[in-house]
Each structure stands twice: as C-alpha cells, then as structure tokens.
Amino acid sequence: MPQLDISVFPTQLFWLALIFIALYLILWKVALPRVTEVRESRQVRIESDLEKAEALKAEAEAALADYEKTVAEATAEAQNSVREAARKMAEDAENQRNALAARLADQLAEAEKRIADERARAINEIGEIAGDLTKAATSRLIGSEINRDEANAAVTAVLRESA
Q1: φ, ψ (nearest 5 deg) of residue 143
Q2: CA-CA distance, 10 to 84, in Å (whole number)?
Q3: Rounded Cα gap, residues 116 and 121, in angstroms
Q4: Closest Cα to residue 34, out of 44, 26, 46?
C-alpha cells in the first residue's frame, strides 16, 4: 500500500499540512464568518422578536387592565341602575299604597256616612211608623185619639232609652 510506504511520508505530511492550513484559512476567512453572521442575524432577530413580544405583552396587559376597568365601571353602573330602579319601584309602590289607603279611607268614610244617613232615615221612618202604630193602638185600646206629635214624642223617648 502506498500510504504506508515510509519513503512518501514527508510529501504526505507536506500535503497534509498544506491542505490543513488551506482548509483552516478557508474556514477562518469564509465559512466561519458566514456562520457567525447567520448566528448573529438570528440572535438579532430573536432579540427583536423578544422585544416585540415584550411590547405586545405590555400592550395586552394594558388592554386587559382597560377591559377590567371598563367591566368594573359597567358593573358599578349596572348595580347603581338596579339600586335606583329598586328604590324608585319601592317609592312608587309606597305612593300607590298611600293613594289606595287614602281612597279606601275616603270610601270607608263615605260608606259610614251613608250607613249613618240610612240608619237615621230608618230610625225616622221607624219612628213615624211606630208613632202611627202607637196612635192607632192607643185609639183602639183607650178609645180616644191622641194627636200625632204626642205619639211621636213617646216613640222617640223609647228609642232614645234603647239606644
């Protein structure tokens, strides 16, 4: 095998060293700068993306805070509206209850007045009828007639005593 021939070792070592140095220089001047450039551009892109992500995160947090503030304000406003509506309904119910109570009191007073008027009229009619009956009964029992005013006065006296 020619690779193991000792007589060609110095030339093989020369070419080995020459190719190694050439590859080293090519890698050092061409390949590694490109790899470094790609790596640095990726690093810059990653840092840029991270900065954008941080900015978007801050923007999202601000939007979330605004949303929560808006929701809290809307909730408070809704609660105030509900409270105000409940207060107004209670006030309206109280006003209606008072109006109904006043109307019922008026109707009751009117009914009591009518009852009192009817009672007085009935008592007067009973008094007149009783007076007529008393006059008729007295004239049949006694045989003499009494005048109507005396009979009515007697009936009125009896009605006052019983009332």
Answers
A1: 95, -5
A2: 105
A3: 8
A4: 26
